[in-house]
Amino acid sequence: MHSMIVTGAIAAAVIAFAMPAPAAAFDLGPIPLNCDRACLEDLVDQYLAAVVAHDPTLLPLSADVMYTENNQVMDVGDGFWKTAEDRGRYTHVFADPEFGQVAYMGTMIEAGNPILMSLRLRIQLGRITEIESVYFKPGGGGPNNIAQMDAPHVPEDFWFRSIPPEDQLSRQELIAIADGYFTGLQRNDGRGIHGTGTYPFTEDCHRIENGAPTTNVPLRPDQDPDALNVFSMGCLEAFELGMYYIVQSIHQRRYPVVDRERGIVYAHAVFDQGTVNSGTLSDGRPHSYAPGFSRPSSILVTEAFLIEDGKIRSVEMVGPGAVYHMNSPWGGLSGD
Fold first, then answer.
1. What's the CA gap between 133 and 151, in Å, rounded?
2. Which CATH class is domain 163-322?
3. Which CATH number is associated with domain 25-149?
4. What are the tens digits of pLDDT across the range 74-115?
5. What is the pTM of this model?
6. Helices (H) and strands (E) in the chain, counts
7. Same fold, 25-149 and 163-322
8. How many Å apart are CA 130 and CA 6, to the nearest integer?
9. Using an 8 Å Cβ cutoff, are 168 and 261 in contact?
10. Cis, bond preceding 56 (omega within 30 deg of 0)
11. Where are the beta strands (DSSP E) in 184-324?
12. Per-domain residue ranges for the chain?
């Protein structure tokens, strides 16, 4: 009888231990464990307010939080935390409640002028464990128009549409489409992804890089309509012509934020270019880029893809120049 009581007590203890505890028992920080879209968007506001206040103590940071600025690891409170003056007038937030991550592209004020900022926050057990920030500043080179984004630019309504659950693509499917963009752009030859003859773009696909449109730009009256102008082309036309052969490697690709409800993938990668400056387009024409592209260099790319019916409709990028073949402390996939 005594052994039965002991055995029963042990069994009860085992059952009690195995049963899930209330969520509050695991809530180790002030951020809710089930931080939904509104919660994540509010966290971005909290973060930017803390940056402007130059005060990291305003945030629920993990003791081992990892913080980077343009791929450089540093202490939270250093770098832009010391020079930020205010928020700008452009904000675009991408939320991934399923994986507890949120991203932001927008303008901030530094030295009296707007700059472009890309930000990613990761939440675990109620605290911020990862902060990845990328900045494009005046004089950064390449096509850009920071002032246009701070005018403010307003993202098109289709970025915010909710897709019915039965029509949503899986996380893996969305990432595969975004990765297809990088694969098709790397050593672009016009033959499609892995030689399939196709690229995943809608007919009206459009791209903005560092605030400047780099597709579908109307020609000026002084421009030759018969001359090659990659900025006047659509996404699909430029890829099919092989205009981006100059980008030789797109490495350390990562896809940390996936918003299945809205069909958005927020990605990081490093573009290597400048070692090949001339090539032959898919229609047989020889082509060369300006001498300024003849130097090895990289671009630290943050890219947001809006995907509709399995194809990319819109792309928004923040990407400063970087040292050639920069490696990311966050890791990532190779570009092969």
1. 22
2. alpha beta
3. 3.10.450.50
4. 999 999 999 999 999 999 999 999 999 999 999 999 999 999
5. 0.90
6. 6, 15
7. yes
8. 47
9. yes
10. no
11. 201-209, 212-213, 247-259, 264-273, 278-280, 286-288, 297-308, 311-318, 321-322
12. 25-149, 163-322
